[in-house]
Amino acid sequence: MDHFLYKNGALHAEDVPVAEIAAAVGTPFYVYSTATLLRHFKLFDDALEGMDHLVCYAMKAASNQAILKTLGDAGAGMDVVSGGEYMRAKAAGVPGDRIVFSGVGKTADEIRLALTGGIRQFNVESEPEMQVLNAVALELGVVAPITIRVNPDVDAKTHAKIATGKSENKFGIPISRAHEVYAMAGAMKGLDVIGIDVHIGSQLTDLAPFEAAYNKVAELTEELRAQGHNIKRLDLGGGLGIPYERSNEAPPLPSDYGALVKRTLGHLGCEIEIEPGRLIAGNAGLMVSEVIYVKEGEDREFLIIDGAMNDLIRPAMYDAHHDIVPVVEPAAGIEMAKYDVVGPVCESGDTFAKHREMAPMKSGDLVAFRSAGAYGAVMASEYNSRPLIPEVLVNGDQFAVIRARPTFDEMINRDTIPEWL
Ligand code: LLP
After folding, report:
1. 145 is in which domain, residue-wise?
2. In the chain, how many domains are there?
């Protein structure tokens, strides 16, 4: 559920007409709903009620500080994967003891940053990383709390580019080697081994792969405890999918997921951490764009809009579907048209949808891409020298620009010309 609804024939973000935001900030832009962000966070928080837990928002999904502060103030922790994300979370006011550091390639500098600034735990992904982390901790005279990410060799049954839990993926250590690696970690003086981490992929629409992975984690917890490791925290990653197409069957709910966590891991008495990104931010954001031209092709009509693949890359990169809806509600019973919805970038891949059935559109009309809150703005680039599009946050009847559109000068003045030119 989200808070982008038609009221009196006009699409609203909570209580603000989307067209009003467009008039104020220009198109294209992203708009997020505070109520939706908070609702989704609470769904997870409630789903784990009764267990000691922390919901660590995977901020890679949407990392504007206003979003982080909204969630952080509600009690969320953050899952970060780079020094930049760590600094952003801190800048948004999230305390270090609510930040977990994931990622396969943490550098010594990033590790130092987090150890100095405060960190809840590192999710270690390899032996060489463990050695560097140990060395940096010893150098700083501190002990780094860690979980070790295990790769359970489970097929997440999602798009290949976002599956992470199979043995051929670069993530985690093979679960078959866990005993050996935990023994090594246990012997390192700069590390405090407190738990196990697992994350098998993103946009999972079936709970079975989670169940298979969590059963393996339960088994491993008991084995490691028997070997003397004090396993007290389980980080279960993110990955629960969202309904991108309204017409499709809805994926499992956070409450179903929470029940699964309790069923598979509840008996262990561990503190549970989860790292949802998409489910919190995905349906909390729209990308809004204006139709530039409606162009007649040989056998089709193109809807050429001012948003492009550099602004929202998911369709080009993952063949992802986003519902595209007109900002003015179409009259009931109106005859539908079919469009290829494309952006102005000079690549055929700059196609958002083919043969998409929509109400008839004309130049100047506004359209909204639904489910664009996660992996939208954060994956944008300035390809074709198109300035990064602004982000707007709505809260009830108010809205604020939370990242302004750079001017052309701001964009081009980031380049510096060497003095020999
Ligand atoms: N934890 C870890 C360690 C992750 O790698 C990820 C996502 C998450 C949590 C959050 O997963 P979520 O709950 O959002 O599914 N750009 C792609 C998605 C990449 C996901 C990467 N890792 C897309 O647009 O579909």
Report:
1. 34-281
2. 2
Is 417 within a domain?
no
> What number does the ligand 1 atom closest to the CA of 313 have?
24
Peptide bond into 28 cis (omega under 30): yes
d(CA 271, CA 234): 6
Which residue from 202, 279, 318, 375 has its CB within 8 A of the most atoms of ligand 1, so it is best to mutate?
202
CA of 388 to the centre of ligand 1 (A): 22
Write a three-state SS string for 46-111: HHCCCCCEEEEEEHHHCCCHHHHHHHHHCCCEEEECCHHHHHHHHHCCCCHHHEEECCCCCCHHHH
Distance CA 217, CA 154 (A): 12
> Ligand 1 centroid vs 255 CA: distance in angstroms?
20
Using the atom order of ligand 1, give the atom closest to the CA of residue 276: 13
Mutate to test the pocket of ligand 1, among 60, 63, 170 (most ligand atoms within 8 A of CB): 60
Q: Are residues 387 and 323 both part of a single domain?
A: yes
Residues with CB under 6 A from ligand 1: 58, 61, 79, 102, 162, 199, 202-203, 237-239, 275-279, 314, 318, 374-375
Q: How far apart are CA 21 and CA 405, in angstroms?
A: 14
Query: Along the 421 residues of the chain, how does pLDDT read in single tens digits?
Result: 789 999 999 999 999 999 999 999 999 999 999 999 999 999 999 999 999 999 999 999 999 999 999 999 999 999 999 999 999 999 999 999 999 999 999 999 999 999 999 999 999 999 999 999 999 999 999 999 999 999 999 998 888 888 888 777 888 999 999 999 999 999 999 999 999 999 999 999 999 999 999 999 999 999 999 999 999 999 999 999 999 998 777 899 999 999 999 999 999 999 999 999 999 999 999 999 999 999 999 999 999 999 999 999 999 999 999 999 999 999 999 999 999 999 999 999 999 999 999 999 999 999 999 999 999 999 999 999 999 999 999 999 999 999 999 999 999 999 999 999 9
Do residues 274 and 380 share a domain?
Answer: no
